[in-house]
Amino acid sequence: MPKSINIHWFRRDLRIADNPSLTAASTDATVLPIYIIDNENAGDFCEGGASNWWLNQSLQQLNQSLNGQLYIFRGSPQYIIEQLCKSLNIDKVCWNRCYEPWQIKRDSHIKSTLVASGIEVCSFNGSLLVEPWTVTKGDGTPYKIFTPFYRKLGLISPRFISSAPNLSTLKKLPIKVKSTPIDSLNLLGKTTWYKKLEEHNSPGEDGAQNALNKFLESNLDSYQEGRDYPAKNSVSRLSPHIHFGEISPSQILHALSKQKASNNTEHFLRELCWREFSYYLLYHCPDMPTSNLKKKFQFFPWKNDSDLLAKWQQGQTGFPIVDAGMRELWQTGFMHNRVRMVVASFLVKNLLVHWHHGAAWFWDCLVDADLASNSASWQWVAGCGTDASPFFRIFNPVTQGEKFDANGQYTRHFVPELKNLPSMYLFKPWLAPKAVLQEAGIELGNNYPWPIVDIQESRQQALEAFQLIKELDG
Ligand SMILES: Cc1cc2nc3c(=O)[nH]c(=O)nc-3n(C[C@H](O)[C@H](O)[C@H](O)COP(=O)(O)OP(=O)(O)OC[C@H]3O[C@@H](n4cnc5c(N)ncnc54)[C@H](O)[C@@H]3O)c2cc1C
To answer: pLDDT tens, 99-154?
Structure first.
């Protein structure tokens, strides 16, 4: 048995580089790298289907990078770690901090029991530029508005990238630890639905570095202007890599600092800081995933029509830009940010379906499903967040399509039944003359739906519903 063994518990840090906990665990001892599928503490926030697919691939890659030495378990981390500590000569348990409320609760409990039994516990910041508790207003209270928060971040030194771990300490342990093979974790379910995700995504630390390099080389220069146009290749598509910790924001910041300063780099950094803000809000308002941050929204008269929700989920609303986005999500596990805002506004405001239903669908379908960013963004669109888009700002799916997908490239790709419709009618096929529809091979109500709501009437209804709660206090 080796003299001393340190555990590094991989969580949302599925990478070797810039991993402060892995580096610390491997400096002075043999390191036992573990991953635990914890469905016991996650409650309603177990990974969704698309996330599980990503996780499965990412764990395979990580295990390869560790020469097959990743020890994987399923169950209660409290129990598993205690058992490991009892049966091995464990000195220290290290992890990078997670920020979801259930994770914070679980980790504090594990830490106190380990410390009580004489085992050292070291936790690190591995996934944020700055810890949420270190950023406050002059009076010590947390920020509620993004822009002053962002300005304050500019004054704080972000976490520096950490040195490489000593991989020679990852040698095979001369002890028997029963690890579950990744294929036996059943992360993929019984069908092969996930095959479609393979065509569009490359999980893993190498995939993350490739995505970053490609973005810096080809797309950063057009980011500010191009990021709103779903057909343009101007965004980084780093979000699932960042969510699973295959790359850290500090690594991205470091790479950005080597680029020439421009509005594009500044804008990209600002978006990364929206992620920081989402985590910040989640830390300071732990009920954000389940409760409106503006409390009076609990009185909002949602209609929650399940047929309309199903049509939205299936991309069968009759509004081409909405349907394109929902089908992009279903087919690729991703949706462009501009379109996320359009489909979310449509669900919450035109269909009057509670944002919880939209967030839950995204949670299951997105490869980048992230409790902080998903709930903060849905609250932002719904108008019930602290720094939200005002409720009366209702995206018009026709003009959004015409403006951000003017030649229809994105919409025609995901809604191929409309591919021959001239651009002037593409985002409002119900207004096209019969002959034009016929020429394009479209029969509304047959091979493409009529709009499921009247856009003006539904807008009016939303404004009236909002008026009801507007005068309430709080
Ligand atoms: C309704 C709704 C739900 C969303 N749900 C999620 C989610 O579950 N997970 C998620 O990562 N993002 C979510 N977002 C934010 C945003 O849409 C994605 O982060 C972005 O589209 C990811 O693409 P990208 O990596 O190419 O982004 P880029 O434009 O290249 O941005 C770089 C990085 O900055 C961060 N970022 C960018 N925009 C935002 C934002 N508005 N909020 C928080 N972080 C941001 C992401 O980490 C992203 O990878 C949601 C947005 C909306 C409107």
So the answer is: 999 999 999 999 999 999 999 999 999 999 999 999 999 999 999 999 999 999 98
CATH of domain 5-125: 3.40.50.620
Contacts of 155 (CB under 8 A, 6+ apart): none
The rounded Å distance from CA 172 to ligand 1 centre is 39
Q: In the structure encoding, which two tokens stand for residue 115, read together?
A: 């410390």
Ligand 1: centre distance to CA 365 (Å)? 14
* pLDDT at 298 exceeding the cut of 60: yes
Query: Global pTM?
Result: 0.97
User: Residues lining ligand 1, judged by CB closer than 6 Å?
Assistant: 227, 235-239, 242-243, 271-272, 274-275, 278, 337, 340-341, 344, 362, 366, 368-370, 373-374, 377-378, 381
Distance set, CA 368 to CA 57, 302, 363, 373 (Å):
14, 27, 8, 9
For the domain made up of 127-159+205-284, give the CATH fold. 1.25.40
CA of 228 to the centre of ligand 1 (A): 12
Higher-pLDDT residue of 172 and 349 is: 349
> Domain segments of the chain: what residues?
5-125, 127-159+205-284, 295-469
Tokens at 454, concatenated: 């009247």
Handedness of CA 343, 349, 351, 357 (dihedral sign): positive
Query: For 174-192, what is the mean pLDDT?
Result: 84
Residue 175's pLDDT is what? 67
Reported CATH class of domain 295-469 = mainly alpha
